[in-house]
Structure formats: C-alpha cells, structure tokens
Design goal:
single chain; about 600 residues; mainly alpha; Sodium/glucose cotransporter; two-stranded antiparallel ribbon; 2 strands; about 0% strand; disordered C terminus
Length: about 600
C-alpha cells in the first residue's frame, strides 16, 4: 500500500476517534465546558495535560532545534520541564483551592478589581494567540507534505476537527480527546526513534543509543556523539556537543523565561482546575511530568540521530573532502519530496551539479573549499520543522511508521490548539461577558456564549495561521515571554504576597508585558531564531546580549518590581483580601490542635 493511502487511513481513523469522543463527552453545563465538572482523575488529567502541553513545537520543532543547535537547545528541555516543577509547587494547588474557572477570574477577585481582570484577559489573549499561530503552522506543514494538500487546505481541515470537539465538548470533550491524542503522539514519536536507534547503534532504547556506539558502516565502534561531532566540525560548523545559544547569560535567561512562561500559560493552568481535590492538582502535575518526560528524554536522541542521518545523506564519502559531496541527481526521493514543500532548498551556486554543504561563516573552511570552485553553502534552507517528520523517510522506515508520525504531529498540534482556544474562549465568555458585561446571564446563555466565543477564537486562530504577524511567525518562544512577563508574576504575588494591591497588579502586568513587547517589536526581523543563525551570533543592540525570545524573564522582573513599588505607595489591600490570601496558602485545619 502506498504512503498516501496509509496516511489517509491512519490520520482519518484518529480524526474519527477524536470526533467520537467529543460526541460522547459533550458538555451540558458551563462547569463541564470550563473545567470538565471538576471530576477528572489526576492520572487522566496528567495525561491530558501532557498532550495539551506537548504542542507542535514539542513534537515537530524541538528535535529540529536540537538537531541544529546541539547542547544549546537544552534550554528548551530544561525550561519547558522545569516550568512544571514551578507549577506543581507554587501555583497549581493554590489556584485549585481558590476554586474558580479561569486565571483572570482569580486575578480579578484576588486584586478586587475588574480592571485587573480585564488586563489579565488581554495578556492571556496576547500570549495564547501568539502560541496558537505555531500550532496552525504545524498543522499546515504536516498536511501539505504528507496528504498532498496546500498549506491553506490543511489548515482548514485542522480547524474543522478542532471546531467539532472543542465547541461541542468544551473542557470535558477536550480532556478525553487529549488523552487519546497523547497515546497517538507518544507512539508516533517513540516508534521511529526506536527503529533509528536500532539502525545506528543496535540499541532499542533511544536514550541509551544516544550515548552508545555506532554498529554499522566504516565507523562501527565509534561513539555516536563523537561521530556526529566529527561530521559537523569537519564541515566547519561548531562542535555539536558544545554549542551554546548566544552567550551563557542568554542561555540562563532563556531557560528562566521558558520556565516561568510555562508556569504562566493559561491553557496549562486551567487543566488543574479540572480535578476533584487540591491534592489532586499537585498529583496531576507530577503525572504530567512523567508523561512529558517520555517524549522529552527521547527528543535529544531524535535530534542528534536526525542530524547525523541528514549529513550522511548529503555526504557520500569521508567528510571534509569536496569530492565527497553527493551529486544532486543521486539524492534520495525523500529529499526531492521535501524540496517540493519549500522547507528544504538546494541551490547549485557553481553549476557543478553537486550539493556542497559547508559553513560559509567559517573562514578556514571557506578558503579550503574555494579551491574546489565552491561559491557558498548550497543547502540554502533546511527548516527545523522537517526533521521529525522527515526522519523516518531519511532512515528508510516503512510507510506505516511515517503515517503514524504524521498522525502524531497532527495530534500534538490539535491538542494544544484546542487548549489554547478554550482558554481564549473562556476568558471572553466567562470573564468579559459574564464577569463584566452581564453578570446575571443564565447558565444556558453563558454556555451558548462560550461556544460562540470558541467559534470566534477558532476563526481568529485560522486567520493568523494564514497571515501570521511578523513578530510571532518566527517562534512560539515569544508566547512564553509574554506569559512570563505578565501572568506568572501576578499569580505569584497574588498567592504569596498579601500586601500587593490592585494598582500594583495592574501596573505590574502592563509594565511587564509592555516592555517585553516593545523589545520584541524593536528587534523583529533580527530574532535569534535557533536553526537559522549560527550560534554565537548576537546583535550589538541586544540588552546584555539577551535575545528577544528570552526577554520574558526580564519583563517578569520589571513586573515584580513595579507591582511591589506601586503597592508600597498606595493603599493596602482590604483586610478581607489579606485573609483570603492567607486562606489560599494555609491548609484547612492548620493550627487546630493549638487553637491558632
């Protein structure tokens, strides 16, 4: 059976599964639409949270970032997983104890201000819309390559699937759909990794294969990572295992921004409102980390092996010799298929019919290559996002494995898109319509407003997927920066500092997200986008060498400082609000034995 037929069958079957679950788990009340009735088991919620979290960026892009950035891309592994530790310890249990439906609702009540609630809604929408653009791209890329549709057609199909199960089921439908999507995506990610690890190292466990020895070819017995280091350095690129992203300060700030951005993303936080008890919120975060770790510990192996396989495809002999470059006429089918998408591009700059792939920014390599008539690196584009999807083809795996990978990539993009869209719709219907415009709205009318808000959010996401704004098109890391600089600090201060008042919260959020967006817009077009710039490059006008993608942590510091400073020169929060903060933090019954 050909690849297209198998792919249609596998992807179609998963789509039918998602729609069937949505019909079975359709929401009948606002409680089911917003928080799945607060009755989700912590293990199930952990699995759903993992699917909600492991977006197209995790499934499709992260291994590509690791493939081209080496050790430097560890910021994503540390930042994205570390954020769940913060979430489990500092936010999830307390927010669940507060017992509301949305993040802006907590902020509005804690800071006794509808203005604070509205500012939180705006921050939430900015971060969520920026993030959802990346999911739309992932859907379009997967469809355009494997189902032979246009990017636009693929996007519309994805929107249609999300429309059915998100509008019909709300959080209840999304939760159980995400459990199914987790199963699909984790099998899709690990099965090819097992095959490729076996092919290269003979070890079926990719995490061990990464540190194992090559078992095939002329380099059998050599450590796989040492072989990869040899390949990339002989071509003039930085040593794979020692690359850093810009500077060490930038790596630290980038990691911190991703951590606190993860803990501040609304679509992740609202997942912990769906469990029955406070302790279940912390348990859910722990289970989510377990389920996420399966993919995240596999990603370094996938990225490293994909880079090695790509180099082996382009090189036909010992690296470092110009005559070793493959003739373009002899490239495998997968190479030409990905060229057709525009995500892989070759340009024969000297007309010799060979693919000459060297680091043109390496002066010694360029000088050596010029004696062979080299006129610049001829692999002018290798998009990060193709590495996971192309990996099974590069390794020559069976068609059914490729079809499963496509289904997994779509599951990752759809699951996160649904969570983001629900966060946006809930903010509009519950926080704006019910919380500010019409507090007396009936439950039936609010449920209708929620579904209409979801439809509007899907339409907005589709529009930005087709016409992404320049500041967000490059990377979803900007979304983490926006959440880090606005939502995370105000939640932390709302829980742990009873003296921060409404004026402090409002001006803190505005200052944090304002300075972050100003920095992003000021530097748009010169982003430090991993995989498109040589590591070590940085722009002279970057603040202490901090890239725009990492600036969210600086915005968070500004948020904290402004909020606390403003609170000190304005009136203290009312006494009942200060008691509310203490009640959120202190377990029920604490001090009962001593009458305190």
């Amino acid at each position: 059976m050909d690849l297209n037929t198998i792919t249609y069958i596998v992807v179609g079957a998963t789509f039918l599964l998602y729609i069937g679950i949505a019909i079975w788990a359709r929401a009948g009340t606002t409680g089911e639409f917003y928080v799945a009735g607060k009755g989700v088991h912590p293990v199930a919620n952990g699995m759903a949270t993992a699917a909600d979290w492991m977006s197209a960026a995790s499934f499709i892009s992260m291994a590509g970032l690791i493939a081209f950035n080496g050790y430097g891309a560890s910021v994503f592994l540390m930042g994205w997983t570390g954020g769940y530790v913060l979430l489990a310890l500092l936010l999830a249990p307390y927010l669940r104890k507060f017992g509301k439906f949305t993040v802006p609702e907590f902020i509005g009540e804690r800071f006794y201000s509808q203005t604070a609630r509205l500012v939180a809604v705006i921050c939430l929408i900015l971060a969520s819309v920026t993030y959802v653009i990346g999911q739309m791209k992932g859907i379009g890329v997967a469809f355009s390559r494997f189902l032979e549709t246009s990017y636009e057609q693929g996007l519309f199909i994805g929107m249609g699937i999300v429309f059915v199960y998100a509008v019909l089921g709300g959080m209840k439908g999304i939760t159980y759909t995400q459990i199914a999507q987790y199963v699909v995506l984790i099998f899709a990610y690990t099965i090819p990794a097992v095959f490729i690890s076996m092919n290269l190292t003979g070890n079926p466990i990719p995490q061990l294969g990464l540190i194992g020895e090559m078992t095939t070819g002329p380099h059998a017995g050599m450590d796989m990572m040492a072989r990869l280091d040899q390949v990339v350095t002989d071509l003039g690129f930085a040593q794979y295992s020692e690359q850093v992203m810009g500077s060490k300060l930038n790596m630290f700030v980038y990691t911190l921004s991703l951590m606190i951005g993860t803990a501040g993303l609304p679509h992740v936080i609202i997942r912990f409102f769906t469990v029955p008890k406070v302790k279940d919120a912390r348990s859910s975060a722990g289970w989510a980390l377990v389920f996420i770790a399966i993919l995240y510990t596999t990603a370094p192996a996938v990225g490293s092996m994909a880079r090695l396989n790509l180099m082996n495809t382009i090189q036909t002999g010992p690296v470092g010799e110009m005559t070793a470059n493959i003739e373009y006429a002899k490239v495998p089918d997968w190479f030409r298929k990905w060229e057709a998408t525009g995500l892989l591009k070759y340009e024969d700059k000297n007309g010799d019919g060979r693919i000459q792939y060297y680091n043109e920014k390496n002066a010694d390599m360029a000088k050596k290559a010029e004696s062979y008539g080299w006129k610049g690196n001829e692999m002018v584009k290798v998009d990060n996002d193709i590495m996971v999807l192309a990996n099974p083809e590069i390794a020559g795996l069976p068609n059914w494995v490729i079809a499963i990978v496509v289904a997994g990539g779509l599951a990752a993009a759809l699951s996160t898109a649904a969570g983001l869209l629900l966060a946006i719709a809930s903010a509009v219907s519950h926080d704006v319509i019910k919380g500010m415009i019409n507090p007396d709205i009936s439950e039936k009318s609010e449920l209708l407003a929620s579904r209409l808000s979801m439809i509007g959010a899907i339409a907005l996401a589709g529009y930005f997927g087709l016409h992404p704004p320049g500041f967000a098109a490059g990377t979803v890391a900007i979304a983490f920066g926006l959440a880090a600089s606005s939502i995370f600090p105000v939640l932390m201060m709302g829980i742990f500092n009873k003296k921060v008042n409404r004026a402090g919260a409002i001006w803190g959020m505005i200052s944090g997200i304002g300075i972050t967006m100003l920095y992003v817009f000021q530097h748009k077009g010169i982003f430090f986008i991993p995989g498109t710039a040589f590591l070590g490059d940085m722009k002279p006008d970057w603040f202490f060498g901090i890239s725009p993608n990492a600036f969210g942590a600086v915005g968070a510091v500004v948020n904290f400082v402004v909020a606390i400073a403003v609170s000190k020169v304005t009136a203290e929060p009312p006494e009942h609000i200060q008691h509310l903060v203490e009640d959120i933090r202190v377990p029920k019954g604490a001090g009962a034995a001593t009458d305190h």
